[in-house]
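Q: Hi! First time doing this. I have a protein sequence and I read that you can turn it into a structure. Is that right? Here it is:
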Amino acid sequence: MILGAPASAGTSLSPDNASRDAALDWLYGRDDDLAQRGVRKGGAGSGGPKGPGGSEDSVLTTVDWLDGITRLFPKETVERLTRDAVDRYQIHDIVTDPKVLERVEPSPALLKAVLRTKHLMDPKVLELARKLVAAVVAEMMRKLATEVRVAFSGTRLRRPSQVRLARNFDVKRTLRGNLGHYQPEERKLYIEDAHFFTRSRRHVDNWQVILLVDQSGSMVSSVIHSAVTAACLWGLPGVRTHLVAFDTSVVDLTSDVTDPVDLLMKVQLGGGTDISRAVSYAGELVANPRRTIVALISDLYEGGSDAGLLRGARSLIEQGCRFLALCALDEDANPAFNREMGERLADLGAFVGAMTPGELAAFVAEAVNS
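A: Yes, that's right. Below is the predicted 3D structure, encoded as C-alpha coordinates:
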Protein backbone atom coordinates (compact mmCIF):
# COMPACT_ATOMS: atom_id res chain seq x y z
CA MET A 1 0.00 0.00 0.00
CA ILE A 2 1.36 3.42 -0.99
CA LEU A 3 0.23 6.47 0.93
CA GLY A 4 1.35 10.09 1.00
CA ALA A 5 2.33 12.15 -2.05
CA PRO A 6 3.23 9.13 -4.26
CA ALA A 7 -0.35 7.89 -3.93
CA SER A 8 -1.70 10.93 -5.80
CA ALA A 9 -0.05 9.92 -9.09
CA GLY A 10 -2.96 8.24 -10.83
CA THR A 11 -4.02 6.31 -7.76
CA SER A 12 -7.50 6.36 -6.26
CA LEU A 13 -7.61 5.42 -2.59
CA SER A 14 -10.50 3.56 -1.02
CA PRO A 15 -12.33 5.44 1.76
CA ASP A 16 -10.52 3.47 4.50
CA ASN A 17 -7.11 3.95 2.89
CA ALA A 18 -7.85 7.64 2.41
CA SER A 19 -8.64 7.85 6.12
CA ARG A 20 -5.41 6.01 6.96
CA ASP A 21 -3.48 8.44 4.79
CA ALA A 22 -5.07 11.44 6.48
CA ALA A 23 -4.29 9.99 9.93
CA LEU A 24 -0.65 9.42 9.00
CA ASP A 25 -0.43 12.87 7.44
CA TRP A 26 -1.81 14.46 10.61
CA LEU A 27 1.19 13.07 12.47
CA TYR A 28 4.04 12.73 10.00
CA GLY A 29 3.10 15.82 7.99
CA ARG A 30 4.87 17.70 10.80
CA ASP A 31 8.18 16.22 9.66
CA ASP A 32 10.07 18.77 7.54
CA ASP A 33 12.43 16.11 6.19
CA LEU A 34 9.56 13.98 4.89
CA ALA A 35 7.91 17.04 3.37
CA GLN A 36 11.10 18.03 1.56
CA ARG A 37 11.40 14.54 0.10
CA GLY A 38 7.78 14.68 -1.11
CA VAL A 39 6.69 11.81 1.08
CA ARG A 40 4.30 14.07 3.02
CA LYS A 41 2.69 17.30 1.89
CA GLY A 42 2.95 19.59 4.89
CA GLY A 43 1.38 19.15 8.28
CA ALA A 44 -2.34 18.65 8.59
CA GLY A 45 -1.87 18.56 12.34
CA SER A 46 -0.18 21.96 12.31
CA GLY A 47 -2.53 23.74 9.95
CA GLY A 48 -1.02 22.55 6.64
CA PRO A 49 -2.97 20.91 3.84
CA LYS A 50 -4.35 17.45 4.29
CA GLY A 51 -2.76 14.45 2.58
CA PRO A 52 -3.94 13.37 -0.88
CA GLY A 53 -7.20 11.53 -0.95
CA GLY A 54 -8.10 12.44 2.62
CA SER A 55 -11.78 13.14 3.22
CA GLU A 56 -11.53 14.34 6.84
CA ASP A 57 -11.35 17.93 7.98
CA SER A 58 -7.89 19.37 7.39
CA VAL A 59 -7.43 20.02 11.11
CA LEU A 60 -8.16 17.08 13.41
CA THR A 61 -8.20 17.17 17.17
CA THR A 62 -6.00 14.69 18.98
CA VAL A 63 -9.14 12.90 20.21
CA ASP A 64 -10.40 12.51 16.61
CA TRP A 65 -7.01 11.26 15.53
CA LEU A 66 -6.80 8.68 18.33
CA ASP A 67 -10.30 7.44 17.62
CA GLY A 68 -9.41 7.14 13.95
CA ILE A 69 -6.14 5.23 14.31
CA THR A 70 -7.73 2.85 16.82
CA ARG A 71 -10.36 2.00 14.20
CA LEU A 72 -8.05 1.95 11.16
CA PHE A 73 -4.84 0.25 12.35
CA PRO A 74 -3.86 -2.89 14.28
CA LYS A 75 -2.84 -2.51 17.92
CA GLU A 76 0.91 -2.68 17.21
CA THR A 77 0.65 0.18 14.72
CA VAL A 78 -1.45 2.25 17.11
CA GLU A 79 1.22 1.84 19.78
CA ARG A 80 3.92 2.94 17.32
CA LEU A 81 1.92 5.98 16.21
CA THR A 82 1.17 7.14 19.75
CA ARG A 83 4.81 6.57 20.73
CA ASP A 84 5.95 8.75 17.82
CA ALA A 85 3.36 11.38 18.74
CA VAL A 86 4.66 11.81 22.27
CA ASP A 87 8.37 11.05 21.79
CA ARG A 88 9.10 12.40 18.32
CA TYR A 89 6.62 15.24 17.92
CA GLN A 90 6.01 16.18 21.58
CA ILE A 91 2.20 16.22 21.22
CA HIS A 92 1.62 16.74 24.91
CA ASP A 93 -2.16 16.89 24.86
CA ILE A 94 -2.09 13.09 24.51
CA VAL A 95 -1.25 13.04 28.20
CA THR A 96 -2.54 16.43 29.39
CA ASP A 97 -6.04 16.49 27.86
CA PRO A 98 -8.53 14.46 29.94
CA LYS A 99 -10.59 13.57 26.86
CA VAL A 100 -7.52 12.07 25.26
CA LEU A 101 -6.34 10.31 28.42
CA GLU A 102 -9.70 8.57 28.73
CA ARG A 103 -9.22 7.02 25.27
CA VAL A 104 -5.51 6.28 25.10
CA GLU A 105 -4.10 2.79 25.71
CA PRO A 106 -1.48 2.61 28.49
CA SER A 107 2.06 2.04 27.20
CA PRO A 108 5.65 2.66 28.34
CA ALA A 109 5.94 5.59 25.91
CA LEU A 110 2.90 7.27 27.45
CA LEU A 111 4.26 6.61 30.95
CA LYS A 112 7.44 8.50 30.01
CA ALA A 113 5.35 11.31 28.57
CA VAL A 114 3.33 11.56 31.79
CA LEU A 115 6.48 11.85 33.89
CA ARG A 116 7.79 14.60 31.61
CA THR A 117 4.57 16.63 31.61
CA LYS A 118 2.88 15.96 34.96
CA HIS A 119 3.87 19.43 36.16
CA LEU A 120 1.53 20.81 33.45
CA MET A 121 -1.51 18.87 34.66
CA ASP A 122 -4.36 20.09 36.81
CA PRO A 123 -5.53 17.75 39.62
CA LYS A 124 -8.27 16.08 37.53
CA VAL A 125 -5.90 15.28 34.68
CA LEU A 126 -3.22 14.19 37.12
CA GLU A 127 -5.60 11.65 38.63
CA LEU A 128 -6.34 10.19 35.18
CA ALA A 129 -2.63 10.15 34.41
CA ARG A 130 -1.94 8.32 37.66
CA LYS A 131 -4.30 5.52 36.58
CA LEU A 132 -2.38 5.24 33.32
CA VAL A 133 0.90 5.08 35.24
CA ALA A 134 -0.54 2.41 37.55
CA ALA A 135 -1.63 0.23 34.62
CA VAL A 136 1.79 0.37 32.93
CA VAL A 137 3.70 -0.19 36.18
CA ALA A 138 1.50 -3.16 37.11
CA GLU A 139 2.33 -4.85 33.80
CA MET A 140 6.06 -4.12 34.22
CA MET A 141 5.96 -5.45 37.79
CA ARG A 142 4.25 -8.63 36.63
CA LYS A 143 6.91 -9.34 34.02
CA LEU A 144 9.90 -8.47 36.19
CA ALA A 145 8.57 -10.30 39.27
CA THR A 146 8.70 -13.55 37.28
CA GLU A 147 12.34 -12.93 36.34
CA VAL A 148 13.21 -12.05 39.94
CA ARG A 149 11.55 -15.21 41.25
CA VAL A 150 13.53 -17.32 38.80
CA ALA A 151 16.80 -15.56 39.68
CA PHE A 152 16.23 -15.86 43.43
CA SER A 153 14.93 -19.43 43.46
CA GLY A 154 18.56 -20.05 44.32
CA THR A 155 20.47 -23.24 44.74
CA ARG A 156 18.53 -25.52 47.00
CA LEU A 157 20.21 -28.12 49.15
CA ARG A 158 18.81 -31.59 48.56
CA ARG A 159 18.88 -34.11 51.38
CA PRO A 160 17.18 -37.53 51.54
CA SER A 161 13.82 -37.41 53.28
CA GLN A 162 11.38 -39.93 54.67
CA VAL A 163 8.50 -37.60 53.93
CA ARG A 164 6.93 -39.01 50.76
CA LEU A 165 5.58 -35.99 48.88
CA ALA A 166 5.05 -36.07 45.13
CA ARG A 167 6.62 -32.63 44.60
CA ASN A 168 9.83 -33.89 46.30
CA PHE A 169 10.11 -37.14 44.32
CA ASP A 170 13.80 -37.73 43.47
CA VAL A 171 13.56 -39.12 39.94
CA LYS A 172 17.28 -39.57 39.22
CA ARG A 173 18.10 -41.32 42.50
CA THR A 174 15.04 -43.55 42.19
CA LEU A 175 15.98 -44.63 38.65
CA ARG A 176 19.59 -45.33 39.61
CA GLY A 177 18.54 -47.31 42.67
CA ASN A 178 16.12 -49.53 40.79
CA LEU A 179 17.97 -50.31 37.54
CA GLY A 180 18.42 -53.88 38.73
CA HIS A 181 14.66 -54.34 38.51
CA TYR A 182 14.44 -53.54 34.79
CA GLN A 183 12.63 -56.25 32.79
CA PRO A 184 13.92 -56.15 29.16
CA GLU A 185 11.22 -58.43 27.77
CA GLU A 186 8.53 -56.20 29.21
CA ARG A 187 10.53 -53.01 28.69
CA LYS A 188 9.47 -51.92 32.16
CA LEU A 189 11.34 -50.73 35.25
CA TYR A 190 9.78 -51.90 38.51
CA ILE A 191 10.22 -49.50 41.43
CA GLU A 192 10.76 -51.18 44.78
CA ASP A 193 12.45 -48.30 46.58
CA ALA A 194 11.22 -44.79 45.85
CA HIS A 195 13.42 -41.93 46.98
CA PHE A 196 12.45 -38.44 48.08
CA PHE A 197 14.40 -35.36 49.12
CA THR A 198 13.85 -32.32 51.27
CA ARG A 199 14.43 -28.80 49.99
CA SER A 200 16.10 -26.16 52.10
CA ARG A 201 17.13 -22.74 50.91
CA ARG A 202 20.80 -21.89 51.29
CA HIS A 203 21.48 -19.50 54.15
CA VAL A 204 22.48 -16.04 52.94
CA ASP A 205 23.97 -13.12 54.79
CA ASN A 206 22.22 -9.79 54.45
CA TRP A 207 23.24 -7.84 51.37
CA GLN A 208 22.62 -4.19 50.60
CA VAL A 209 21.62 -3.10 47.11
CA ILE A 210 21.92 0.67 46.70
CA LEU A 211 20.42 2.07 43.50
CA LEU A 212 21.58 5.62 42.68
CA VAL A 213 19.33 6.95 39.92
CA ASP A 214 20.08 9.98 37.77
CA GLN A 215 16.90 12.08 37.33
CA SER A 216 18.08 13.96 34.24
CA GLY A 217 15.60 13.99 31.37
CA SER A 218 17.64 11.61 29.21
CA MET A 219 17.42 8.92 31.90
CA VAL A 220 13.62 8.77 32.19
CA SER A 221 13.35 5.15 31.01
CA SER A 222 16.01 4.07 33.52
CA VAL A 223 14.23 5.99 36.30
CA ILE A 224 11.04 4.03 35.59
CA HIS A 225 12.77 0.65 35.51
CA SER A 226 14.79 1.47 38.63
CA ALA A 227 11.60 2.11 40.58
CA VAL A 228 10.07 -1.16 39.37
CA THR A 229 13.29 -3.10 40.04
CA ALA A 230 13.59 -1.72 43.57
CA ALA A 231 9.97 -2.68 44.27
CA CYS A 232 10.58 -6.25 43.06
CA LEU A 233 13.78 -6.62 45.10
CA TRP A 234 12.17 -5.20 48.23
CA GLY A 235 11.58 -7.75 50.95
CA LEU A 236 13.52 -10.59 49.31
CA PRO A 237 15.33 -12.75 51.87
CA GLY A 238 18.89 -11.62 52.34
CA VAL A 239 18.47 -8.33 50.46
CA ARG A 240 18.05 -4.80 51.81
CA THR A 241 17.26 -2.35 49.00
CA HIS A 242 17.81 1.41 48.90
CA LEU A 243 16.62 3.72 46.12
CA VAL A 244 18.22 7.15 45.88
CA ALA A 245 17.39 9.72 43.18
CA PHE A 246 19.66 12.63 42.41
CA ASP A 247 20.18 15.71 40.26
CA THR A 248 22.15 18.48 41.95
CA SER A 249 20.63 17.29 45.23
CA VAL A 250 20.07 13.81 46.63
CA VAL A 251 16.67 12.40 47.65
CA ASP A 252 16.39 9.06 49.45
CA LEU A 253 13.19 7.41 48.17
CA THR A 254 13.62 4.12 50.00
CA SER A 255 10.51 4.67 52.11
CA ASP A 256 8.43 4.87 48.90
CA VAL A 257 9.83 1.74 47.23
CA THR A 258 6.79 -0.40 48.02
CA ASP A 259 4.57 1.95 45.99
CA PRO A 260 6.38 2.52 42.67
CA VAL A 261 3.43 4.47 41.24
CA ASP A 262 3.52 7.02 44.04
CA LEU A 263 7.31 7.09 43.83
CA LEU A 264 7.31 7.85 40.09
CA MET A 265 4.73 10.58 40.51
CA LYS A 266 7.11 12.25 42.99
CA VAL A 267 10.15 12.11 40.70
CA GLN A 268 11.28 15.48 39.38
CA LEU A 269 12.94 15.01 36.00
CA GLY A 270 15.53 17.44 34.65
CA GLY A 271 17.88 19.85 36.33
CA GLY A 272 21.62 19.51 36.81
CA THR A 273 23.64 16.45 37.73
CA ASP A 274 25.94 15.99 40.71
CA ILE A 275 26.93 12.32 40.62
CA SER A 276 29.75 12.70 43.13
CA ARG A 277 27.28 13.85 45.79
CA ALA A 278 25.11 10.77 45.19
CA VAL A 279 28.11 8.42 45.39
CA SER A 280 29.20 10.10 48.62
CA TYR A 281 25.70 9.58 50.06
CA ALA A 282 25.85 5.89 49.10
CA GLY A 283 29.06 5.60 51.12
CA GLU A 284 27.12 6.77 54.21
CA LEU A 285 24.54 3.98 53.72
CA VAL A 286 27.03 1.10 53.47
CA ALA A 287 26.99 -1.17 56.52
CA ASN A 288 29.14 -4.08 55.30
CA PRO A 289 31.11 -3.20 52.14
CA ARG A 290 31.75 -6.83 51.20
CA ARG A 291 28.01 -7.43 51.24
CA THR A 292 27.06 -4.33 49.26
CA ILE A 293 26.21 -3.68 45.61
CA VAL A 294 26.15 -0.02 44.54
CA ALA A 295 24.47 0.47 41.17
CA LEU A 296 24.96 3.97 39.78
CA ILE A 297 22.39 4.44 37.01
CA SER A 298 23.51 7.46 35.01
CA ASP A 299 24.81 8.60 31.63
CA LEU A 300 27.95 9.68 33.57
CA TYR A 301 27.89 13.28 32.38
CA GLU A 302 29.01 14.86 35.65
CA GLY A 303 27.90 18.39 36.40
CA GLY A 304 29.77 18.45 39.69
CA SER A 305 33.28 17.21 40.37
CA ASP A 306 34.81 14.51 38.17
CA ALA A 307 37.56 14.08 40.75
CA GLY A 308 34.98 13.75 43.52
CA LEU A 309 33.06 11.09 41.58
CA LEU A 310 36.19 9.06 40.91
CA ARG A 311 37.38 9.46 44.49
CA GLY A 312 34.04 8.25 45.87
CA ALA A 313 33.87 5.29 43.49
CA ARG A 314 37.46 4.29 44.32
CA SER A 315 36.73 4.41 48.04
CA LEU A 316 33.69 2.12 47.70
CA ILE A 317 35.55 -0.35 45.47
CA GLU A 318 38.62 -0.47 47.72
CA GLN A 319 36.39 -1.17 50.73
CA GLY A 320 35.02 -4.23 48.90
CA CYS A 321 31.74 -2.95 47.41
CA ARG A 322 30.67 -4.22 44.00
CA PHE A 323 30.28 -1.03 42.00
CA LEU A 324 28.13 -1.01 38.85
CA ALA A 325 28.01 2.04 36.58
CA LEU A 326 24.87 1.26 34.56
CA CYS A 327 24.46 3.68 31.69
CA ALA A 328 21.02 2.24 30.98
CA LEU A 329 18.62 0.10 33.02
CA ASP A 330 15.67 -0.61 30.76
CA GLU A 331 14.22 -3.18 28.40
CA ASP A 332 16.60 -2.21 25.56
CA ALA A 333 19.83 -1.83 27.59
CA ASN A 334 21.10 0.46 24.83
CA PRO A 335 23.26 3.10 26.53
CA ALA A 336 24.39 6.55 25.47
CA PHE A 337 26.95 7.84 27.95
CA ASN A 338 30.19 9.66 28.68
CA ARG A 339 32.65 7.03 27.50
CA GLU A 340 35.69 8.79 28.90
CA MET A 341 34.23 8.73 32.40
CA GLY A 342 33.10 5.14 31.87
CA GLU A 343 36.65 4.11 31.00
CA ARG A 344 38.04 5.86 34.06
CA LEU A 345 35.54 4.07 36.33
CA ALA A 346 36.30 0.75 34.65
CA ASP A 347 40.01 1.31 35.35
CA LEU A 348 39.11 1.57 39.05
CA GLY A 349 37.41 -1.82 38.96
CA ALA A 350 33.78 -0.82 38.32
CA PHE A 351 31.54 -2.76 35.98
CA VAL A 352 30.52 -0.28 33.27
CA GLY A 353 27.75 -1.11 30.82
CA ALA A 354 24.01 -1.56 30.58
CA MET A 355 21.56 -4.11 31.93
CA THR A 356 17.93 -4.98 31.67
CA PRO A 357 16.14 -5.11 35.05
CA GLY A 358 16.12 -8.91 34.80
CA GLU A 359 19.88 -8.98 34.28
CA LEU A 360 20.40 -6.76 37.32
CA ALA A 361 18.18 -9.05 39.40
CA ALA A 362 20.22 -12.05 38.23
CA PHE A 363 23.46 -10.24 39.15
CA VAL A 364 22.14 -9.52 42.64
CA ALA A 365 20.89 -13.09 43.04
CA GLU A 366 24.27 -14.54 42.04
CA ALA A 367 26.04 -12.31 44.59
CA VAL A 368 23.59 -13.09 47.37
CA ASN A 369 23.66 -16.85 46.78
CA SER A 370 27.42 -17.11 46.25
